[in-house]
Every structure is written in structure tokens, then in C-alpha cells.
């Protein structure tokens, strides 16, 4: 049951991130609500309103048909315009910033819900339209249902105004960076909280039994609770080999076990690994570093040349690195003081190198960005770290940045500014190289 629940939850999370999820749900709701109103009309709800509140009810068939037809036409036009705005947002984000941003923007619930409200109202009005009899008397006209259609349309107009406001905010780079940062920070803090209950000791797994994956995709979610139950029952320990978030190919080693396992147990373990074809920051915080890095690199590319956006990206990157420094490189899952599962994670050294290697290529010629990056290293060296070796990694990357800057910057005044920052950072650099 736990495995079924885990797979169902994972499937729901994947489907929920699709742009058509909420519109589809709301569309079905609008259709079923129209049938429900037809049932109420058969009980005489409109007849009661005609006799007691006649001003609120449309009692003419032709008028009701005209109103609903106008509402449907207007709502369809709003849907087309809103959908075009979403596609424009995705196109601009992909071309100006990074294609990796698309999954996060597509999964924006606000846009999905607004489109869903439009579709629900359109389907509701269409089915109510079919139930109208133009030649019937005023007691046969679904006046109350028509009134609700008008009210729903007014709600759609309000949603449309909010949609225009929201879409104009979503395309701004500061809001995009802030959303990425918040999601990544929440994910890292969750991992840090888990580390507090971990035992740092775990045996060497080189000689353990190795088992392979039967599927491929991005390693998105792992059900640690189920794996802990299996480990405790089978009296074994597991070492998960791929780093969470990377693309796992079919047939490569997935985990090692301290004991040799039966086929049924292996299948139970494999069922707790969920693979997807897309990456989300909420599941893999390293994707946030990739996205912000790509935004900085794209901003400094010759085709765009936007140093302001690059400076904003470095600010968010600095704060995100400061949060990551609180996390240890080791990741061990324990229960009752006993370590059962070890996970391979991307180290801080590897993370900083991957980020800085890309940024150095496009930013080394700009002294303002070089200074900004050196200020980032200065700030990070003052932060508490989960591992003292993190500071050595920062010094190494700062020296690499200065060496690249030296080969790209010819102005002596700019070089002197870089050297002053190196002195503040206490970097061991041979002045003759500059």
C-alpha cells in the first residue's frame, strides 16, 4: 500500500505540473455543474425566482439565447488572448533567459487556474444554452442558470484583469530569480533539517552487491520511508549510487546492498525510485544553480549583452551559495540511531566549479562582474559552513576567476582593482602574473 501511495503521489505531482491539468479539472467541473443546474431547473428553481424575484431572472427564450451566445463568444476570445500571452511569456523566457525555466513557468498554478475558470464557464454556458426552449413559456426558461452564467462571466473578467497583472510580473527577471531562489532555499533547508537526525558513520560499500536500474529518466523522488522499512526487515543497508536529479540510463548501477537480495526484494526496492522526463527545482536544488547560472551566461552573451541581469543573478547566486554552505556533503538516512541508506550527492566543490566554470567564460572580460563575483567570495567566506573545506573551494575558484580575468582585461586600473580584492580575500597569488 505504501508503494502504491508513493507512486500515486509522484504521478499526481508530475501531472499537476502540466499546463493542462487545472484547466481540464475546471472544465469537467463546469460541465457537471451545468448538468446539476439542469436537475435543479427540473425541480422548479427558476419558477420560484420568477414568482418571487422576477428582476433576477431572464424569462424570455430569445433573450437568454442571445445573452449566452454573447458570453460564449467573449469568453472564447479571452481564452485565445490569455493562452497567447502564456505562450509569449514562455517564448521570451526561453530566448532571453534559459529554456530550463519553462517547466517552472508552465507549472504556475495561477495561470492554469485562470484558464480553467474560463473553460469551466464556457462549457457551463454551452450546456445551459442547449437546455433552452425558445418557444416555451417563462416557467420553462432556465432563468436562474442564465443568471449564474452572467455571474461566472463577471468573475472571469476579474480573473482576466488579474491575469494581465500576473503575466506582466512573471516575465520580470527579478521575480523569476526570486521564485527559483525561494524553491531552492526551501529544498536545501529541508535537507539540512534531515541532516540533524543523521549518523555521520557509514561503512565502505566497495565490496557490496550491486544492482541495476530497469528504467531511465531523471531520478526525481525516492521513498526513503519504504526503503528504511525494507532495510530493517531484510537487515541490510543500501548505498544509492546516482546523484538525485541526474539522468539515469537503463542498466547502469542504481544501488548497492550489504546483503545479497532476492528478486522480490529487489523489485520492491526499485519500485521506490521514481523517474521523470523533466526536472523541477522543488525536487532538485542543484537545478536552481544551473538555472541562475544559465541566466547569467545568457545575459552576458554577445547577442543579449545585459550586465544588469547578470549582476542580479550573481546576487541571488550569492545568497543561495550561503544557504548551501550550511549543508554537509554527506547524506545518510538513519532510523533509531542506525544508518541504513547512503546517498551520493553533488559536493560543494563540484557545485562551485560547475557554476564558476560557465560564468568565467562569459564574465571574465567585464571588471564590474569580476568585482561582483569577488565580493560574492568575500561574503561567503564569512558564512558558517557545514564543512571547513568549503573555504578552500572558494579560494580556489576565486584564484581561477582572477587568472581568467588577467588574460582578458588589459587595462592596468582594472587589474589593480582586481588585485585589491584579492588582498582582501587573502588569496595567495603571484603578483608577477598580473
Automatic annotation (TrEMBL):
Keywords of this entry: Membrane, Transmembrane, Transmembrane helix
Keyword Nucleus applies: no
Source superkingdom: Bacteria
Record-linked InterPro entries: DUF2254_membrane (IPR018723)
Residue ranges crossing the lipid bilayer per the database entry: 20-40, 64-90, 111-132, 144-164
Pfam families referenced in this protein's UniProt entry, alphabetically: DUF2254
Protein's recorded name: DUF2254 domain-containing protein
Amino acid at each position: 500500500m505504501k508503494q502504491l501511495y508513493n507512486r500515486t503521489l509522484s504521478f499526481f505531482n508530475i501531472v499537476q505540473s502540466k499546463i493542462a491539468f487545472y484547466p481540464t479539472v475546471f472544465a469537467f467541473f463546469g460541465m457537471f455543474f451545468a448538468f446539476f443546474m439542469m436537475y435543479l431547473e427540473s425541480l422548479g428553481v427558476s419558477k420560484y425566482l420568477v414568482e418571487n424575484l422576477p428582476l433576477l431572472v431572464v424569462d424570455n427564450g430569445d433573450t437568454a439565447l442571445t445573452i449566452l451566445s454573447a458570453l460564449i463568444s467573449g469568453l472564447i476570445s479571452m481564452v485565445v488572448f490569455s493562452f497567447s500571452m502564456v505562450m509569449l511569456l514562455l517564448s521570451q523566457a526561453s530566448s532571453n533567459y534559459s529554456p530550463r525555466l519553462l517547466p517552472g513557468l508552465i507549472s504556475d498554478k495561477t495561470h492554469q487556474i485562470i484558464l480553467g475558470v474560463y473553460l469551466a464557464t464556457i462549457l457551463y454556458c454551452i450546456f445551459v444554452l442547449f437546455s433552452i426552449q425558445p418557444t416555451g413559456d417563462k416557467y420553462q426558461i432556465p432563468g436562474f442558470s442564465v443568471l449564474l452564467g452572467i455571474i461566472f462571466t463577471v468573475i472571469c473578467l476579474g480573473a482576466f484583469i488579474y491575469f494581465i497583472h500576473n503575466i506582466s510580473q512573471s516575465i520580470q527577471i527579478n521575480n523569476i530569480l526570486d521564485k527559483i531562489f525561494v524553491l531552492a532555499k526551501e529544498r536545501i533547508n529541508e535537507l539540512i533539517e534531515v541532516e540533524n537526525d543523521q549518523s555521520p558513520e557509514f561503512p565502505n560499500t566497495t565490496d557490496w552487491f550491486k544492482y541495476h536500474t530497469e528504467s531511465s529518466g531523471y531520478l526525481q523522488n525516492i521513498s526513503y520511508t519504504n526503503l528504511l522499512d525494507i532495510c530493517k526487515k531484510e537487515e541490510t543497508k543500501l548505498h544509492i549510487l546516482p546523484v538525485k536529479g541526474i539522468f539515469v540510463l537503463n542498466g547502469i548501477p542504481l544501488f548497492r546492498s550489504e546483503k545479497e537480495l532476492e528478486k522480490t526484494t529487489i523489485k520492491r526496492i526499485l519500485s521506490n525510485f521514481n523517474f521523470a522526463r523533466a526536472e523541477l527545482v522543488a525536487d532538485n536544488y542543484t537545478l536552481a544553480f544551473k538555472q541562475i547560472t544559465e541566466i547569467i551566461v545568457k545575459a552576458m552573451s554577445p547577442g543579449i549583452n545585459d550586465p544588469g541581469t547578470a549582476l542580479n543573478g550573481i546576487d541571488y547566486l550569492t545568497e543561495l551559495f550561503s544557504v548551501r554552505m550550511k549543508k554537509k556533503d554527506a547524506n545518510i538516512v538513519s532510523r533509531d540511531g542506525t544508518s541504513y541508506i547512503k546517498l551520493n550527492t553533488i559536493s560543494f566543490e563540484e557545485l562551485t566549479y560547475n557554476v564558476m566554470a560557465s560564468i568565467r567564460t562569459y564574465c571574465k572580460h567585464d571588471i564590474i562582474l569580476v568585482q561582483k563575483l569577488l565580493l560574492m567570495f568575500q561574503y561567503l567566506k564569512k558564512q558558517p559552513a557545514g564543512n571547513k573545506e568549503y573555504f578552500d573551494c572558494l579560494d580556489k575558484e576565486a584564484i581561477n576567476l582572477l587568472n581568467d580575468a588577467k588574460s582578458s582585461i588589459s587595462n592596468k586600473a582594472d587589474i589593480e582593482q582586481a588585485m585589491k580584492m584579492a588582498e582582501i580575500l587573502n588569496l595567495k597569488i603571484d603578483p608577477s602574473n598580473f
